Amino acid sequence: MTLLTVHGVSKSFRGLRAVDDVSFEVAEGSVLGIIGPNGAGKTTLFNLVAGALTPDSGTVHLGGRDITGLPPHRVAAAGMSRTFQLMKPFASMSVLENVSVAVMAGGGSRRTARTAAAEVIERVALGRWRDSRTDGLPTAALKRLELARALAGRPRVLLLDEVLAGLVPAERAPAMDLLEDLRANEGTTLVFVEHIMAAVMRLSDSVLVLDLGRVLTTGRPADVVRDPRVIEAYLGEEPVDAEA
Ligand SMILES: Nc1ncnc2c1ncn2[C@@H]1O[C@H](COP(=O)(O)OP(=O)(O)OP(=O)(O)O)[C@@H](O)[C@H]1O
């Protein structure tokens, strides 16, 4: 069943078409990877889908409901959350308090929020940092906190903006395991923007390639990385790096 349908969305910034007539569908429980060169429009597309920006044209439907132009908190209430490339947790608060705030944003009392937050924190293996202030956290833990905050609202669709960036290779495999586990055990539908091709190859059911704001192609990962247009626009002449 199709859960997320993006139809013909466009967005211009002072004449520059950052996203130009982009359409795609994501089936419930599946994983879509979005790749493309710097400036291709990936983050803008996320902002359009998650409600941070309103499209100039086009529509976004979640579970059959038109959510085009809804603000982010209403998109989250409708079942779709996102992570940010630049993480901005409340520095002076603990991990538990940060995730509790995210739970409360979706409704619920302070007491039930702490219980729900503690569960999410265990879910993303952040337990040892639970009571630590977030300004002292290493990058890998901050990334997990960002994921925990997005998961706090129990989304059906999770939009992940470069959650592996900044992790050393040894930290990437456990992060990918976590994403696979979310999908396998909770049926969470994932849409992720990622530059690390090994992750795109491992996690995605299908891959959408953006270039100059437009969809260059979409298909199975193994087919997309062999597409000469993708190699020219994005991957270069180098063979795809399979190291995670
Ligand atoms: N708020 C804005 N105002 C003006 N131009 C913008 C704005 N946001 C994005 N752009 C421009 O839109 C284009 C697409 O940017 P976007 O950040 O969406 O690309 P991206 O694919 O996410 O890039 P990266 O991989 O570097 O994160 C770029 O040319 C960018 O300069």
Automatic annotation (TrEMBL):
Instruction: Give all residue intervals belonging to the ABC transporter domain.
Output: 4-237
GO cellular component labels = plasma membrane
Which domain of life, per UniProt?
Bacteria
Q: Does the keyword Cell membrane apply?
A: no
Record's keyword terms, sorted: ATP-binding, Nucleotide-binding, Transport
Kindly list the GO molecular function terms attached to this UniProt entry: ATP binding; ATP hydrolysis activity
Recorded hits in PANTHER family, A to Z, give: ABC TRANSPORTER ATP-BINDING PROTEIN, CONSERVED COMPONENT OF ABC TRANSPORTER FOR NATURAL AMINO ACIDS-RELATED
Protein's UniProt name: Branched-chain amino acid transport system ATP-binding protein
